[in-house]
Amino acid sequence: MAGTGKTVLRAGLIGLGMMGRHHARVLRETEGVELVAVADAYGDPHGAATGLPVYSGVEGLIDAGIDIAMCAVPTGLHVEVGLALAEAGIHTMVEKPIADTVAGGEKLAAAFEARGLVGAVGHIERYNPALQSLRARLESGELGRIFQIATRRQGPFPARIADVGVIKDLGTHDIDLTAWLAQAAYASVSANTTIRSGREHEDMVAATGLLDNGVITSHLVNWLSPTKERVTVVTGERGAFVADTLTADLTFHENGTINTEWESVANFRGVSEGNITRLAIAKREPLKVEHEAFRDAVLANRGLLQPAPAAAAAEHDGGAGTDRPAATIVTMREGLNTLRVAEAMIASAKESRTVGLQG
């Protein structure tokens, strides 16, 4: 870890469920971080806390004298746990979404900002190698003007989710990554949902949106499909990028430069097919990159992180160089904006209207 000296951050983890167990592993592996305590009201069902004290609640973590915390409890508990950590002066990353309501998310973001603490939200898709590389390529102008961003996030029903619907659980991934890729906010959304699993919340959504820079968006999200897919397609004036975040593959479909001699096909297509290139990119585990970004944000907040030399940064980045931008945290304010869009989608579906988000 370049520039951090021997500083070691004492970390605590609350929530030892399906995601919590992965956070425990990665926290143990992250240089400059020592996982010293964990907490979960139901104990340690996955055996992720070997050798560590397991507390029943957030108070035990606070009393353990931690510097940073990872909050992986159910969404409905984010505000309660997060506010306790903020009050204790502990830098915290919460799993996405930031909260179950915009009002709760606002309280959480304000609490960390008021105390000058690092507050982050775990929108892990931003750290996927394919999307990191795609963001850098879009920023450098490889696609020219961006016309549309379309996402598909579909798969089997997750038994672990009970307190929110598919929009806040899965759809927030696509809302966040779309605004991040386009570097623009949502201006409006329109959505249709359905409930097929017999539970309170929606389990399927088809949504469209308009960003404030004119890019149009399309999102298909459900947890009712036997086929799992995680695909983002960005279409622009020079072609289209297709990112598969399940495999971290990025492919560029270039607009053709060769005339099509078959007249009926040429007239139909408008844009001709060109070369298809599967791009070679370094593939680090997104969760590790996410935790490193959070660690570095905390060290920078404390004035303990010096910029790494370019060569060292490239080596640390798996040799990616300019393949992707330096990883930064998703702030709580950004997470709150994502939640606002998610709630606008839910309102749109209930009220059968397009919902504006500006002003």
Automatic annotation (TrEMBL):
SUPFAM superfamilies: Glyceraldehyde-3-phosphate dehydrogenase-like, C-terminal domain (SSF55347), NAD(P)-binding Rossmann-fold domains (SSF51735). Signal peptide: none annotated. Residues 132-241 form the GFO/IDH/MocA-like oxidoreductase domain. Residues 10-123 form the Gfo/Idh/MocA-like oxidoreductase N-terminal domain. Keywords: NAD. The keyword Ribosomal protein does not apply. It comes from the Bacteria. This is Gfo/Idh/MocA family oxidoreductase. It comes from Arthrobacter sulfonylureivorans. The lineage of its organism: Bacteria, Bacillati, Actinomycetota, Actinomycetes, Micrococcales.
